[in-house]
Amino acid sequence: MPSRTFVAFPLSVPAARGYVEEALQDFPAELRETAALLASELATNAVRHAGGQDFEVAVRRSAAERRLWVGVTDCGGHDPVVRRPDVTTEGGRGLQLVGLLADRWGVRRDRATDAKTVWFELAVPDAAQVHGVRAVRGT
Predict the structure, then answer these.
(1) What's the pTM value of the predicted model, to 2 decimals?
(2) What is the pLDDT of residue 138?
(3) d(Cα 9, Cα 52) in Å, to the nearest integer?
């Protein structure tokens, strides 16, 4: 599984987004852009809430299941919380966005290292869907 470690610094967020875009360069643009956006939201959370420790971004595709998995791992002590900020509040909507755009998402904790991975999955369209062609069954 390809992965890359980033320093917990605000400039690492666009770098993490770029990493996901590059890792998915052969994927459809819409899927690549959604994955990069959601990864940048999770990277932002890692920078803000992981106590200044580095974070890792991993990208994995399951060909058999036609799923794309992206995870952001950090050593922050708390599980993420979906917030419901007022409309005038800046920030606090990253996990809402993940929940809206991802097919699935969750948190996995490694008890040995106390690291947590916040991950999401997106469905990968087949080639026929990518090119706007529907497969038709013969009779």
Answers:
(1) 0.82
(2) 40
(3) 8
Q: Are 7 and 54 in contact (CB under 8 A)?
A: yes
Q: Which DSSP string do the residues of 30-54 spell out, in sequence order?
A: HHHHHHHHHHHHHHHHHHHHSTT--
Question: Which residue in this structure is represented by tokens 């990493």?
Answer: 19
Q: What is the mean pLDDT of the chain?
A: 83
75/129 Cα distance (integer angstroms): 39
CB-based contact 130:29 (threshold 8 Å): no
- Whether the pLDDT of residue 139 is over 50: the answer is no
Three-state DSSP at 121 gives: strand
Mean pLDDT of the 82-94 span: 62
d(CA 22, CA 36): 9
Q: Where are the beta strands (DSSP E) in the chain?
A: 3-6, 55-62, 67-74, 104-110, 115-123
Name 19's Cβ contacts closer than 8 Å, sequence gap at least 6: 4, 6, 39, 57, 59
